[in-house]
Amino acid sequence: MSKLYGVPLSPMVRKVLLALEIKQLDYELVPVTPFMKPAGFEKISPLKKIPAWEDDKVTIADSSVICEYLEDRYPEQALYPKTPEEKARARWFEEYADTAMLQVLGTVFFERVAKKLINQPADEDKVQEILQTKLPQICVYLESQVPETDFLFGGVVQLADIALASHFINLIHAGVQIDSAEYPKLAAYIDRIFQHPAVGHRIAEDKKVFGGK
Ligand SMILES: N[C@@H](CCC(=O)N[C@@H](CS)C(=O)NCC(=O)O)C(=O)O
To answer: What is the assigned CATH class of domain 84-210?
Structure first.
């Protein structure tokens, strides 16, 4: 059985989980958290980051590398657009999510949610600074990019949408909603992605982890 190393609350792992779910592929989730990595994990993930993937043919790390591999090997339920131009744009949104959004939204989630899970206090000053300065920059940019209807590349949720949504899911878990008066297109677009059954399922599964906390 193919193995995905990581935990679902990581936005990078969530991206792969959603790709697997949409492509209806079987896998075993091997729990590895950023705080507790098993001895020898660098043999599977040389940078010791999650996610990593192991199957009958490859052992690879990095959410984008894994998702592109899954697409190449299992092209049904395509997760990338077809034309070179759209594909390049899709990869850009994924890169933007994996870098700028991971840093900004990931820090809010780490402070407010992950630290609670490991019994550490949140640095709320840091959170407020991010919410007031860095998050608006991301929202302004995305408001200028997302469509009024449907998804980034038409009527079907694809990887670029999943990559962005994975971070917005963590923002919701951290108690932050995107202001629909200020960013109407972005707020509506995120809502549409959240209505996808696979995305709704992931959000519900995440909430089980917080249970009682
Ligand atoms: N570019 C990588 C980033 C992976 C990443 O930063 N993962 C975080 C968790 S969200 C991690 O493993 N952090 C632990 C560490 O850096 O040691 C990807 O897309 O998979």
So the answer is: mainly alpha
